[in-house]
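Ticket closed. Logging final result for diguanylate cyclase.
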Amino acid sequence: MNKDSFAKSTETLKQTVPLMIKHKVPTTPANYALWYTYVSQESPLLNQAMDGEIAAQGQCTPTTCEQLYHQHIATKAVQDISQLKQSLTLMMQEVSHSMTDTLTETESFQLNLDKGFTKLESAEREGLSLEETMGLVRGLIKESRNIQLSTGAFKSQLNTAQQEIATLREALQESQKEANEDALTGIFNRRAFDRDIDSVQQKNIPFSLIMLDIDKFKIFNDSYGHQLGDQVLKAVSRRLKESCREQMQAYRFGGEEFAIILVNKNHSTARQHAETLRRSIERISVLDRRNGERINTITASFGIAEKSRAETAEEVICRADTFLNDAKKLGRNRVLPLS
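Final structure:
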């Protein structure tokens, strides 16, 4: 590196660190790389995306920083990790099935050996000389016992491998849980919600929170099946995502419950948004392909809370969730509080 390059890098770094401090960005290696590239203006698309995010949200949330890092900074190998995990999971499932089949075939082979021994004993009784018969029997018994020992060891190895695969699959599932995106609906998940609301709280940014829950979803699943239930979750998630304009972000909070963080928005704005969304969900229609029936009875209940100065993020969530439960008790398909 020549002196000019070193001086330029130093100057860029001097601008990067204060900017990260200003926006209260955690000082992780990925964030350093992201904000260093932003300051250096080496990636116009990155700068455009970050400027747009900061203008809309007043900040760059941890979830967004991570997304931008993967989109603009990370190597292709890093970007492909998620796909690799999925492929590896599928591969392990196939290997596991193959192992199960092999175990079955091995047991069948041993059964056939036992039948063969019975036939040899019959042949001895039906005409071979004692010496010839016993020589044949001794040789085959010795060989078959070797095979039995070999297959026994093979079965043990397969059982061990299956246990290792089960352990690895569990580890991969745990790793996949760390992703920011909900696999079914495509919107942000609970992990992203927790990170982002903590970030807003730590930066003392005003916000309101909408919590919503699909009405009678368990009964819906029991009546129409989980596949149709998944269609409903996807449809509601699309409505949430489409409805979120500047300084709003939607998340799947868990099961059939969702959340929307509205940065720099007051209670009145949050309630108006929730009411618009409630009416939009009422219009969702899904087709049951099993019988051609169209389902038009999907509704959701909402709870709203605006953060006060003294509240923690957990207290805001609890308050919004309480209003949500009250909305369900009062007949569902409504937004609370009323004002």
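The chain has three domains: 3-78, 81-177, 190-336. No further action required.
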